[in-house]
């Protein structure tokens, strides 16, 4: 099977939408969570990025400062394969 980044990104976006709906996030805020999920996707799949955990943490901090809920951001991170410790250290597996 051939890897298709567009179908993988579509799955990430679908998950973000589903989580927002389940958590009763407003339709106005949902695109921001989707943007965060897309940003993580690009960080995760950049073969040249040697500091994925730092970039993921910066993305988390940026969206948290913009008012998004930390629990949903963390869920989206874990969904994409990032490990988040209790001290909010972000670890990339793989």
Report on the architecture of this protein.
With 94 residues, the chain is mainly alpha-helical. It has one domain: Methane Monooxygenase Hydroxylase, Chain G, domain 1 (Up-down Bundle), CATH 1.20.58. A two-stranded antiparallel ribbon has the order 1-2. The two termini are 20 Å apart. The model has no long low-confidence stretch (mean pLDDT 87).
Short description:
With 94 residues, the chain is mainly α. It is built from four helices and two strands. The chain has a single domain (5-92), classed as Up-down Bundle (Methane Monooxygenase Hydroxylase, Chain G, domain 1).
Strand order, biggest sheet? 1-2
Radius of gyration: 13 Å
Return the average pLDDT rounded to an integer. Answer: 87
> What order do the SSEs take from the amino end to the carboxyl end, as H and E?
HHHHEE
The biggest sheet, with number of strands, parallel, antiparallel or mixed sense and barrel status, is:
2 strands, antiparallel
Secondary structure tally: strands: 2
CATH class: Mainly Alpha
Identify the CATH architecture: Up-down Bundle
Distance between the termini: 20 Å
Count of the separate structural domains? 1
> What form results from the Cα inertia axes?
globular
What is the CATH topology descriptor? Methane Monooxygenase Hydroxylase, Chain G, domain 1
Overall helicity? 55-70%
Regions with little confidence, pLDDT below 50 for 5+ residues = none
**Which structural class is indicated by helix and strand composition?**
mainly alpha
Strand content: 5-15%
Number of helical runs?
Answer: 4
């Amino acid at each position: 099977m051939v890897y298709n980044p567009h179908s993988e990104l579509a799955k990430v976006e679908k998950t973000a939408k589903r989580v927002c709906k389940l958590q009763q996030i407003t339709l106005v805020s949902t695109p921001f969570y989707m943007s965060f999920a897309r940003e993580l996707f690009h960080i995760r799949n950049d073969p040249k990025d040697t500091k994925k955990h730092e970039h993921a943490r910066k993305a988390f901090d940026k969206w948290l400062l913009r008012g998004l809920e930390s629990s949903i951001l963390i869920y989206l991170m874990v969904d994409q394969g990032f490990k988040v410790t209790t001290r909010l250290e972000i670890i990339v597996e793989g």
